[in-house]
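[recover] target loaded
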């Protein structure tokens, strides 16, 4: 992304490159994305970067997502969309993604160590260890699934399930269990 462009200019640039149709149709798409991603208030603020601050981290992430949404894809892959964000901003980005999913899009994302609040927003969950799928089902079923495997797999009360799964499936933990 160009650090000296505003949020709107970045979306307009993407629309002009990626979309067919009239200028007005492209600008309508930009307006829709600004509204959908809650970027209307900061649309005329420069994105910023290493040389100057610009918009907030969450607004920057949502702008990046907006560039990808220009073509109105039904499937979106996001790698670590919450990385580098404080917990409030990360949750805000996940809420936005949840709204997009509820609107009919499929969102697939990787997230390491999500907070409990973020974890509770997931519909489906894939947990992997050493390149193999350990769990793939509705996220709300994961704690119960593991608890049925034995007492060593019970997530303690008041623990973040995501942290528990990360500890359980870490390479060190698996190596210890294989010994």
């Amino acid at each position: 992304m160009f650090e000296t462009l505003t949020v709107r200019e970045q979306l307009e640039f993407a629309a002009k490159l990626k979309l067919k149709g009239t200028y007005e149709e492209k600008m309508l798409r930009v307006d829709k994305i600004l509204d959908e991603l809650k970027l209307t208030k900061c649309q005329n603020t420069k994105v910023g970067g290493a040389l100057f601050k610009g918009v907030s981290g969450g607004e920057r992430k949502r702008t990046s997502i907006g560039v990808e949404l220009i073509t109105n894809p039904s499937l979106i892959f996001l790698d670590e969309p919450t990385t580098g964000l404080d917990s409030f901003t990360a949750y805000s980005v996940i809420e936005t993604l949840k709204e997009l999913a509820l609107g009919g899009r499929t969102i697939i994302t990787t997230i390491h160590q999500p907070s409990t609040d973020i974890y509770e927003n997931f519909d489906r969950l894939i947990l992997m260890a050493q390149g193999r799928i350990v769990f793939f089902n509705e996220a709300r079923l994961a704690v119960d699934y593991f608890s049925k495997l034995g007492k060593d797999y019970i997530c303690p009360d008041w623990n973040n399930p995501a942290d528990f799964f990360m500890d359980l499936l870490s390479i060190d933990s698996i190596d210890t269990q294989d010994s």
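[recover] notes: The radius of gyration is 19 Å.
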